[in-house]
């Protein structure tokens, strides 16, 4: 039996664009994807901190170092430019693998540049 665990996340990124007339997905600065261990076209869950919306889409690699965080297509209706989002991806693991695994957590500043990378999260604390 496998269980689904948090693989990695980009925490409190700022939405820089919302493009309704696009096929779909989220365009993310490719440096952020790399540091978080998220692949291009990988399924992700997005949580909008300001409005509580939760939805799934897939990633498209954006210009490295640009800080781009652009929701495309129908997902553009779920956010506003300037909203803070959490971008999470998950992995299927055996219980034994899950006991040892620690997710990669990429914290970003208001310009979506990396401020810190950890593999630690605990309730009420930002590791």
TrEMBL record:
Q: In which pathway does it act?
A: Cofactor biosynthesis; (R)-pantothenate biosynthesis; beta-alanine from L-aspartate: step 1/1
Give the subcellular location: Cytoplasm
Where substrate binds, per the record, is at 57, 73-75
Transcription among the record's keywords?
no
| Alphabetical UniProt keywords | Autocatalytic cleavage, Cytoplasm, Decarboxylase, Lyase, Pantothenate biosynthesis, Pyruvate, Schiff base, Zymogen
Describe the processing and modification events after translation.
Is synthesized initially as an inactive proenzyme, which is activated by self-cleavage at a specific serine bond to produce a beta-subunit with a hydroxyl group at its C-terminus and an alpha-subunit with a pyruvoyl group at its N-terminus.
Catalytic activity, as annotated: L-aspartate + H(+) = beta-alanine + CO2
Pyruvic acid (Ser) carried by residues: 25
Tell me the GO molecular function terms.
aspartate 1-decarboxylase activity
Q: Which Gene3D superfamilies match?
A: 2.40.40.20
The UniProt record lists the EC number as 4.1.1.11
> Which co-factors does it depend on?
pyruvate
| Positions annotated as active site in the UniProt record | 25, 58
Cofactor binding note from Swiss-Prot or TrEMBL: Binds 1 pyruvoyl group covalently per subunit.
NCBIfam families, alphabetized: panD
Q: Which HAMAP family match?
A: PanD
The family note in this entry says:
Belongs to the PanD family.
Its subunit composition reads:
Heterooctamer of four alpha and four beta subunits.
Role according to the record: Catalyzes the pyruvoyl-dependent decarboxylation of aspartate to produce beta-alanine.
- Name the record gives this protein: Aspartate 1-decarboxylase
Organism, by scientific name, is: Coprococcus ammoniilyticus
